[in-house]
Amino acid sequence: MLIGYMRVSKADGSQVNDLQRDALIAAGVDVAYFYEDRASGKQEDRLGLIACLKALRPDDTLIVWKLDRIGRDLRHLINTVHDLTGRGIGLKVLTGHGATIDTTTAAGKLVFGIFAALVEF
């Protein structure tokens, strides 16, 4: 199953998630499986992200518009994706600098592994 996660940084309504929503729909995510937050990516305790991560099951794929939607801290990103991988859950990034990340493919696993190695170094 494909699960989508969206985030905008401001909760005051000055930002919208229309581009993210459209991209997730185009990627095949059913709107019933969308999770979203209106909070800074620096916050790790976002309710939408927490609910999204809990909803994911083995063989699901988490789809995000850009990698920074999950979070801005590289260590948090690495830990989150490492946890997903350990649970048998894939991650696919649709656009931006992380668009080569698709942990459901060998090439995507390699790219993510390089990022993880850089964090460890």
TrEMBL record:
Keyword terms of this UniProt record: DNA recombination, DNA-binding
Record keyword DNA-binding present: yes
Pfam families recorded: Resolvase (PF00239)
PROSITE patterns named among the record's database cross-references: RECOMBINASES_3 (PS51736)
Chain ranges of the Resolvase/invertase-type recombinase catalytic domain: 1-121
UniProt-recorded Gene Ontology molecular function terms: DNA binding; DNA strand exchange activity
PANTHER family in UniProt: DNA-INVERTASE FROM LAMBDOID PROPHAGE, SERINE RECOMBINASE PINE-RELATED
UniProt-recorded name of the protein: Resolvase, N terminal domain protein
